[in-house]
Amino acid sequence: MNDSVDKLVIFLAKRDGIDKLVKTFQYISKLVHWQVEVGHPGLAQRFKQWEVASGLSRKAFRTGRFLTGLNALRRLGPPTTAGQTPRWSTLQLLAVLANAGEMVYFFFDHFLWLSRIGTLDASLARRMSFISAFGEAFGYVFFVIMDFIMLRKELEEERRLTNKLMKEEDNDRPNKEGNYKEFERIMKIKGDRIMRLMGVAANLADLIIALADIEPNPFCNHAVTLGVSGLVSAWAGWYRNWPS
């Protein structure tokens, strides 16, 4: 019990931890509003206000978050080797595109927040929402591609190590120390795979939410689609940020 409380305190001390908790409030209230809108309009209005307040508070809490993407872009660069022209790897190029899209998303999200609370002209909200959502969708597409590439590489590495362990078991004098290290590596790959799959789930869910802003349509903009997508994203992020 004490261990769980300690982990919760650590989780909520993180910016992402608070964001995932408030995001859970935001999308649960959206689903409840949709469910009770017809039969209990007064209650539905209260949950709608909770949804709007949660969304605006998340935007305020993310102030300056675009600097994370900017810092990632500063650190990315082609490896330099003496006498050779620097070359970008595929993953580096994907990382540049992904972080650039995420930086645009968080940067213009500031103006969206200011326009919705009345500090800036309210007519700017739609334009800022489109630009922010477009950057978000653009970035998440490349994050997902990166994760799938890494998942494939890790699966290949896991198969190689598993085959090596099986061959070692058939030997008369197996290398126990080497086997233990390879077994640890396999377990680490499996743990990383779960985290990557959580990342893919969160990014695909957020991509659906972004598409609802970019090109409104009956599927993406339905309350159930948005609510479920928001909760998938929140809970996948919750899992990834929960202290181990």
From TrEMBL:
<keyword id="KW-0576">Peroxisome</keyword>
<keyword id="KW-0472">Membrane</keyword>
<feature type="transmembrane region" description="Helical">
    <location>
        <begin position="128"/>
        <end position="151"/>
    </location>
</feature>
<comment type="similarity">
    <text>Belongs to the peroxin-11 family.</text>
</comment>
<dbReference type="GO" id="GO:0042802">
    <property type="term" value="F:identical protein binding"/>
</dbReference>
<comment type="function">
    <text>Involved in peroxisomal proliferation. Promotes peroxisomal duplication, aggregation or elongation without fission.</text>
</comment>
<dbReference type="Pfam" id="PF05648">
    <property type="entry name" value="PEX11"/>
</dbReference>
<dbReference type="GO" id="GO:0044375">
    <property type="term" value="P:regulation of peroxisome size"/>
</dbReference>
<keyword id="KW-0812">Transmembrane</keyword>
<keyword id="KW-1133">Transmembrane helix</keyword>
<dbReference type="GO" id="GO:0005778">
    <property type="term" value="C:peroxisomal membrane"/>
</dbReference>
<protein>
    <submittedName>
        <fullName>Uncharacterized protein</fullName>
    </submittedName>
</protein>
<comment type="subunit">
    <text>Homooligomer. Interacts with ARC5 and FIS1B on peroxisomes.</text>
</comment>
<keyword id="KW-0962">Peroxisome biogenesis</keyword>
<dbReference type="GO" id="GO:0016559">
    <property type="term" value="P:peroxisome fission"/>
</dbReference>
<dbReference type="InterPro" id="IPR008733">
    <property type="entry name" value="PEX11"/>
</dbReference>
